[in-house]
Specification:
The structure is a single chain. By secondary structure, this protein is an alpha/beta fold. It has a domain of 132 residues: Leucine-rich repeat, LRR (right-handed beta-alpha superhelix) (Alpha-Beta Horseshoe), CATH 3.80.10. 31% of the residues lie in helices and 24% in strands. It has a 21-stranded mixed β-sheet. Helix 8 links the parallel strand 5 and strand 6. Helix 6 packs parallel to helix 7, helix 7 packs parallel to helix 8 and helix 17 packs parallel to helix 18. Keywords: Membrane, Transmembrane, Transmembrane helix. InterPro entries: F-box-like_dom_sf (IPR036047), F-box_dom (IPR001810), LRR_dom_sf (IPR032675).
């Protein structure tokens, strides 16, 4: 008879305990974990990866306790928020510790910093970090003066600051960076012009990584780099005014790039078409590029032409994109009363699952299955998810805001979400827009004033006979599934998804569902409520469950024999 061995948590190797502590905030480590036993107490004394966060909610007593309990050489990062009080976290922190003792400090993050507080910190950096590599992140409280910028650059030049992250800082920083002896390797800034970027790349010979959250490029901007920027290996540019010919001219001079991330808001379809033909450009100009991410957003793209985007996506299905580089693409289409936009992007830029990636309105579409390494390049098909409001679409047609549809929205729709604020009275219109035989999952977003009856549900499932997953979401975060509705669902549906965190609704749903494989509860995006009470009840009742990595869903497995 085999015995199942369950290791004692206290007996875990120190290296594993360190990895666990990496996921816990410092207060919980010192005020809770430390007090469990003498072994854990000793572990907290030797643990050398502390990340300290002092925010506006940190009490003075907690700051005193933490500074007293932690050995300075065991701290690798500080996050400090400056307030407007007479004795805020930064001033109190500096009065309690000797910053020169933090010999393993790698990151100093200063948020909402004032000129006075920054001067105090920079004086310590200049004095004590001349031989230690350090990353410095600063978010300024207000506009900057020349004295502050000069002190900042002096600290960079005299210390070993290799990574600099700046927000809310004046344009003069660019001029002074280009005239200083900075040895920066990483620079992340809030905004810059094309001319400023060229100056930075030209005057910072050690710069390996650059990122700007708002990159401004004018039509008459010229590339002014006199030589190749062979030291630059990482470049991130987010822009509302990016022009393809100027972008290619710039990238032609950064031939050593390994990582490239481009975000182009309010772009043109020509920009996207040109991007889809970048295979030769990358091979010729960026031979070392391993990681390429992009997001291209196009305004005013009519939904009648949505099929054209499939030709663009197919341009990214060549062996170069999906076999050699493993670079995949996804597509999102947005249509409501005020917007008609389309976006093509790297899937890693968006981890939002169906249906949350689709916006409510008349119509919203996105690809469900994107290019993958296992695609058959000759027979690959694009599948789509669609969210629509039939009532609003009928109103738009009747008011001549939208032409009467005569064909399907797109081919191969597998996921459908319906916003229902009025009884569905036109399955004929839905059948024109969608091939129900290809659907595998349907979500129903129900207003609090509308009751989705079992008869309508049966009509819907009779049309969509291959659907095995149904999702339901009510406006008021409570879902009540009646007995006749349960009977209809259980005849065809294998998995039920319910968007709710209401403890009572979740219990009633589980107790009424039978002959299904699982029920998944999904939190509303931005919800601050946890699954604590539900998990406790599931453990007490002996039900098997799993929680998603992002903690946004809880899947409960059902005993189909019950």
């Amino acid at each position: 008879m085999s015995m199942k061995f369950t290791p004692n948590f206290v007996e875990l190797p120190t290296e594993i305990l360190y990895c666990i502590l990496d996921q816990i905030n410092t207060q919980d480590i010192l005020f809770s974990f430390r007090n469990v036993c003498t072994h854990f107490y000793a572990i907290t004394n030797t643990y050398n990866r502390y990340k300290i966060h002092f925010t506006s909610t940190s009490s003075k007593s907690d700051i005193h306790r933490i500074c007293r309990m932690i050995k300075p050489e065991n701290v690798i990062s500080f996050f400090l928020i400056s307030t407007c009080t007479a004795l805020d976290g930064i001033e109190l922190f500096l009065s309690l510790i000797d910053i020169s003792q933090f010999t393993r400090l790698k990151l100093l993050d200063l948020f909402n910093i004032s000129h006075c507080d920054l001067h105090k910190i920079l004086q310590h950096i200049t004095t004590n970090f001349m031989h230690m590599p350090l990353s410095l992140k600063i978010t300024f409280r207000d506009s900057n003066n020349d004295d502050t910028i000069e002190l900042l650059l002096s600290a960079i030049a005299q210390s070993r600051i290799r990574k600099l992250f700046l927000e809310n800082i004046s344009d003069k920083i660019y001029q002074m960076l280009c005239s200083s002896q900075c040895t920066l390797e990483t620079l992340v800034i809030q905004s810059c012009t094309h001319k400023q970027l060229c100056g930075i790349l030209d005057h910072l010979p050690n710069l390996q990584s650059f990122s700007s959250n708002y990159y401004m490029m004018n039509t008459d901007d010229q590339i002014v780099l006199p030589t190749l920027c062979k030291q630059l290996t990482s470049l991130t540019l987010r822009s509302c005014t990016m022009l393809m010919d100027q972008l290619e001219s710039l990238l032609s001079l950064t031939t050593s790039l390994v990582y490239l991330h481009i975000v182009s808001y309010f772009s043109t379809f020509d920009f996207l078409q040109h991007l889809s033909k970048w295979e030769h450009f990358i091979c010729d100009k960026l031979p070392l590029l391993k990681h390429f991410k992009f997001y291209v957003h196009i305004k005013d793209y009519p939904y009648e032409k949505i099929k054209d985007i499939e030709h663009i996506i197919n341009s990214f299905r060549t062996s170069f994109w999906i076999e050699q580089k493993l670079w995949y693409v996804a597509c999102k289409y947005i249509k409501n009363s005020t917007r008609t936009d389309i976006a093509l992007y790297s899937p890693s830029d968006s981890s939002i699952d169906f249906p949350d990636g689709l916006l409510p309105g008349i119509l919203s579409c996105s690809t469900v299955t994107v290019t993958t390494k296992n695609d058959d390049l000759c027979n690959s098909r694009i599948t789509w998810s669609v969210r629509l409001n039939v009532s609003k679409m009928i109103d738009a047609i009747n008011s001549n805001q939208l032409s009467q549809p005569t064909h399907q929205i797109v081919n191969n729709i597998t996921h459908l979400a319906l916003d229902i604020d009025w009884p569905i009275d036109s399955f004929d219109l839905l059948s024109t827009l969608i091939d129900f035989s290809k659907l595998t999952e349907i979500w129903l977003f129900l207003s609090r004033h509308h009751y989705f009856d079992s008869f309508t549900m049966e009509l819907l499932l009779n049309l969509a006979r291959n659907v095995r997953t149904i999702g339901i979401s009510y406006d008021d975060d409570s879902t009540q599934i009646t007995e006749d509705m349960r009977l209809v669902l259980c005849r065809q549906i294998e998995q039920l998804k319910v968007k709710t965190m209401d403890f009572g609704s979740m219990k009633l749903t589980l107790e009424s569902m039978k002959n299904m494989s699982s029920v998944t509860f999904v939190s509303h995006r931005g919800s601050t409520i946890s699954w604590t009470d539900m998990i406790k009840w599931l453990n007490q009742t002996g039900r098997a469950f799993s929680q998603s990595n992002d903690c946004r869903s809880l899947q409960v497995w059902l005993d189909q024999n019950s």
